[in-house]
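Dig into this one:

. . .
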Amino acid sequence: MTDGLDTDAESAVGRQPSKYIRLRDNTMNQTDPWSATDRDLRDALRSLRDANDAAAVVTVVDVDGSAYRRPCAKFVAPADQTALGAVTAGCLDGPVADLAAEARKSGTATVATFDLTGDEWGLGLGCNGVVDLLVEPLDDSLDPLLAALDDGEAAAVCSVVESDDDAVPVGARTVVTEADSEDGNDRVSVPADILADLQSTADAVRDAGSSTTVRIKREAGDLRVFIDGIEPVPRLVLFGSQNDVRPIARFGAQAGFHVTVASPRGARADDEQFPNAHRVRAAHPTDLPALIEDPERTYVVLLSHNLVDDRLALKALLDETDVPYVGLMGPRKRFEELWAASRDDGRAFTSSELDRVSTPVGLDLGDGSPTGIAMSVVSEVLAAANGADGGRLSERAGPIHDRPDLTR
């Protein structure tokens, strides 16, 4: 993706753009920059803030009609590195990069509107939507958000995107965490009276990981505030050590999960065996609960290919954690044997527990190859994480994406 370097004076003084943003843990982002995940974008923001590097952030804040990306989608554009993320299908890369470059220079936030319902840009777009983008310099106003995510907490970023009040400019911001409301020093804050009016909506959006726009009418001037609910990245724990773990780990990481491989065989518990995992641990089946740091956002797939190990792991997960999803590799007959063995040991699964178990794991893609199986497994986990059923979009009535119902 174009990053606007040719329009940026600060990048022309002897500095060459690096191919990838260097992440906080000194590894390199090896994904396609355009298809960067939320995890990649957050790592980039942390790295840029730690280095105090100039960058711009572009966020979709409103869509009227249809568009490739929905509100919350982001694009991070550093001054001297390749940009990450996408706010359109690629058709507006140039204009968006120019806006990002201007935000880095001016240090001010703006909202740009792109009407994609016709052919204004001469590209035959036909997206049938009007998209509003908040374009802003990266500064300390996002530090409270990054701190909350580091602590495993969700947050709601409240940003003014339209204002008739000169004292509250576009870009004014306050971050609402689970414990408090926090501001940076580089921005005007959302006024306390407005924040009080927004509090219940911000809490709901934060807890749902969704977004909405709220219009505030006041004597000093009307405002429109975009509330962006941002959750920690979901986690995928894979219990197994055979070759089929590797493609699942790879697709899981590419889909944006933080991936842990828990190997029941100690000799296979090293990073080189599973290069796409974020961490690899040797784990007895009953040790799995100790690896679950964020139960509400953790999804587990059991694929040890050992009936006893899988049974012990499933019992431990259901007894000791509240993870919402446990996928179990293998045919139904295998699970029936596992269930019968557990019942014989005096541990019968309740209906509510069985609702958390998916076996055979995966969506029906009709492909039995290792790659097809891995895609099937990760597709179902991703659907579970997003509260979706994994059905065909062509069979869904109404819009493809849910529309938030909190705007007022």
In short: The longest helix spans residues 192-208. The radius of gyration is 23 Å. The longest strand covers residues 55-65.
